[in-house]
Amino acid sequence: MSAPTTQPGGETRPLAFVSAQALRERMHAAVNDPHLRTSFRGAMDFLMAKRAAQFPDESELTSLRELSEGIRQYSLSKLPDLLEQLETNLTRNGVHVHWAETPDEANAIMLGIARRHAAKLIVKGKSMVSEEIEFNHAMEAAGIGALESDMGEYIVQLAGEKPSHIIMPAIHQTKQQIARLFADHIPGVDYTDNVDALIQIGRRVLREKFEEAEIGLSGVNFAVAESGTLCLVENEGNGRMCTTVPKVHIAVTGIEKVVEKLEHVAPLFSILTRSATGQAVSTYFNMISGPRKPDEKDGPEEVHLVLLDNGRSQAYADEQLRKTLQCIRCGACMNHCPVYTRIGGHAYGTTYPGPIGKIVSPHMMGLEQTHLLPTVSTLCGACGEVCPVKIPIPELLIRLRGEAQSKPHALPAMVGQGAGYDRLTTFVWRMWARVYGRPGSYRAFSWLASRFRMFAPSQQAGWTAARTPLTPAPRRLRDMVRNRR
Fold this sequence. Notes:
Layout: E1 4-6, E2 12-14, H1 20-31, H2 34-54, H3 58-77, H4 79-92, E3 95-100, H5 103-116, E4 121-124, H6 128-132, H7 135-141, E5 145-148, H8 151-158, H9 175-185, H10 195-212, E6 215-218, E7 222-224, E8 229-234, H11 238-244, E9 248-254, E10 258-259, H12 265-276, E11 284-288, E12 302-308, H13 312-316, H14 332-336, H15 340-343, H16 354-365, H17 367-370, H18 382-386, H19 393-405, H20 423-436, H21 439-451, H22 477-484
Parallel strand pairs: 3-12, 4-5, 4-6, 6-9, 7-10, 9-12
Antiparallel strand pairs: 1-2, 7-8, 8-11
Helix pairs in contact: 9-10, 16-19
């Protein structure tokens, strides 16, 4: 279920599109919502503590991060070859492999599969890629139901929202809000804020839908090229139901999720679950290598894999930006980010919020729409310190800021390069660099600033929106030191 937003001028677009002004408005609204800030702060503190408890040995964490980083970089270095190997082995196993460059192509492929099977209902396991391409919105426009079966995703679907976290989609909702949603949207359900009762209500509704759905859809955590195996990590069992009960299973994933060998999955799986939810291991780990065989009692009769690009090739083409694709979608960077923990996921207005969203979304949506996202950061480095595959997120944020603010040129590294370019701003920063880059100029400037400090403007662009104005000191530090001698 897509959550639309009204843009300036009255035009309605999916939530994945956010203008610069809308981003600012969302951030201000989130910061001024004390309930949201309190609930997110408590939830993030809990998750950080659980993660820390899973890594009591610092040396083990260091070695596991280095190993995981090495596996992801090795996989990406061979990505084109591994994708071809994956396709060959999946095809040999009886899986139909499809390639999609854009969200529209991916949705068209899956819509075609649904129509061939006269499907009226698709039941979904958790898949951020399906959120990325607005799959639910596309299916509903074609008259086909798409029901989320992950409890958190089911809740935000009922609320008409996007997930606010890539691992815990409904973390922004209270049990009272969920109770009201269930009472308002599920026939025959009375209001109750008993958590166990709410879980049972959701389970009862979804169990019926698993039996009715003609197609099950899932994401993919790891795709193993050497064996043609799709690995799916989950805790609720809904992923296993989606991939076995319906007659057709469609898996959709980004092209970067491939690894070469099955042995490469083990360390990534270990650090994923421990970084994401503080679990030693997830409840379920599914390995799918093909449709049901004649002598098997369960499983789908037909399996499809849709491999999506959607800007990933753009990131892959640049040696530095390629590191973005190392992500294993654990959400640890969000849990530790001082910005995300105060404004939540919806303020970003993109499928992937938080630090990872700020470096992924510009490739998927272009810098025209996302050039402000990399600036929604303190550059404190917490995200890079906790990333299990050691993505240098702060460095990539600085790179994206440069791409957005640089003067447009003929061969841009990214779509929308130069979207935030402003002649006046560029001139001011160049003058600043000249002054601060030359000792003589800096001494002259600081002397003048201290003597004429009364003329410092009271309004200083974005700085004074939340801070007191910057005013030069009456005396320079160098003068104070000289007078003490």
